[in-house]
Amino acid sequence: MSIGGSSWDVRLPAGGRRRRGNFFIELLQTVLLALLLYGGVSLATDRVRVENISMQPTLYEDHLLLVNKLVYKVRQPTYGEVIIFHHTDNPPEDYVKRVIGLPGDEVWVKDGRVYVNGVRLNEPYIKEAPNYEDRWIVPEDHYFVLGDNRNNSSDSHIWGFVHRDKIIGRADFIYWPLQRAGSLLPPDTVLAAP
Question: Residue 80 belongs to what domain range?
Fold first, then answer.
């Protein structure tokens, strides 16, 4: 056969069919590639189901989240990020909360407002103002976290700080239900009170 002045020839094995051995080799290669891709995605991300009301109105029960497990290998958590962390070891339990205070920060909850180092937080994501008051200094390698449903959340205002080693990753995206799908990256205005 000739196309554009050059000739090429397609030859099939005897009988006009591919060899059975080639099919199995290609199948094995496809399965190995799929396993490598799955392993890579699992190393970099996690999928988490929300199981309580502590992050409402941002997250509701049965929301499915995509968690970035690599981001905190290269940098520390920052204000406003939603993180997943191990809270208890026996039995193992993971929590989802928002980062409010970094190591060395002074966090103060007073008159229904949250202050970090004297700056009132702009928190459009909370359900209602906290009905508790206290002051904390965040220790080195620890973080102060709160749920967005401030008055219905077991968080740092009750049990203290989260050690950096307990953090699994940052919740980046809601992927289910589809009508609520979207980014969970923090607003730029968290530390800029109106």
Answer: 46-183
Active-site pick, 2, 6, 54, 153? 54
CATH number of the domain at 78, please.
2.10.109.10
Task: State the catalytic residue, choosing from 97, 153, 156, 166.
Answer: 97
Q: What percent of the chain has a predicted confidence (pLDDT) above 90?
A: 64
| Total number of domains in the chain | 1
- For residue 6, indicate whether it is catalytic: no
Domain annotation covers residue 13: no
pLDDT of 169 above 80: yes
Check: CB of residue 85 under 8 Å from CB of residue 166. Answer: yes
Is residue 54 annotated as part of the catalytic site, yes or no?
yes
- In angstroms, the first-to-last Cα distance of the chain is 75
C-alpha 173/C-alpha 64 separation (Å) is: 8
Q: Looking at beta carbons, which pairs linking 107-112 to residues 24 or more positions away fall under 8 Å? A: 107/135, 107/136, 107/137, 107/138, 107/144, 107/156, 108/134, 108/135, 108/136, 109/133, 109/134, 109/135, 109/157, 110/135
Any domain includes 33: no
Is 14 a domain residue?
no
Please say if the pLDDT value at position 29 is more than 90.
no
Residue 21 lies in a domain: no
